[in-house]
Amino acid sequence: MPGQRRQGRGMSEPLFLGQTTPLPTSPEEARLDYVPNPRKAELFCVRFAAPEFTSLCPVTGQPDFAHLVIDYAPGETIVESKSLKLFLGAFRNHCGFHEDVTVGIGRRLFDEMQPQWLRIGGYWYPRGGIPIDVFWQSGSPPAGLWLPDQGVAPYRGRG
C-alpha cells in the first residue's frame, strides 16, 4: 500500500534497497518508499531523469516513449530512488494518455512525499507525427530555490 511505511512502520529500513525486487505489475501495485531528508534545514532541488520511460497507448496498446524529468524541493522526506525506479517501470504495461500518466506520477509523488514543491516534465516522443509535452507543478517554487532548466530540447525531428 503506498505510503504505508511513512505512516505506520517508521523509516528505519528501506523497503527495497539491497534486495532483489520484481517489477510491480501496475503503478497501483507499486510501493514508493520514503526516507528522512538528511538536510531538512536546507532548501535544495532534487532531480530525477528517466529518459527511457514507457507506457502504453490506451487506444491502440502500442508503446509510448517519454523523457521524464522530476524536480522537487524536499520537506521531511526524500523518495528512495530504487522504489521510484520500480514505480516508473510499472508503467510499461499501463495504458494511459500522456497527460494522465505525467500528471498522475507528479500528483502521487507530491501527495505521498509531501515535498515543499514538485514539478514534472513529460517530453513524449511523437506518435502520429505530433510530440506531446506535459508539465505539472504543485504550485509556485519556494523563494530562493535554484531551478535549473530541465535540459530537454524541443522535438526537432531528424535535424
UniProtKB/TrEMBL annotation:
Matching SUPFAM superfamilies: Tetrahydrobiopterin biosynthesis enzymes-like (SSF55620)
Keyword Cytoplasm: yes
Keywords, in A-Z order: Cytoplasm, NADP, Oxidoreductase, Queuosine biosynthesis
TM segment ranges: none
GO molecular function: preQ1 synthase activity
Catalytic residues in the record: C57 (thioimide intermediate), D64 (proton donor)
UniProt-listed Enzyme Commission number(s): 1.7.1.13
Sites where the protein binds substrate: V79, E80, S81, H98, E99
Catalytic activity annotation: 7-aminomethyl-7-carbaguanine + 2 NADP(+) = 7-cyano-7-carbaguanine + 2 NADPH + 3 H(+)
Pathway assigned in UniProt: tRNA modification; tRNA-queuosine biosynthesis
Region (Disordered): 1-23
Protein task: Catalyzes the NADPH-dependent reduction of 7-cyano-7-deazaguanine (preQ0) to 7-aminomethyl-7-deazaguanine (preQ1).
Protein name: NADPH-dependent 7-cyano-7-deazaguanine reductase
Lineage start: Bacteria, Pseudomonadati, Pseudomonadota, Alphaproteobacteria, Sphingomonadales
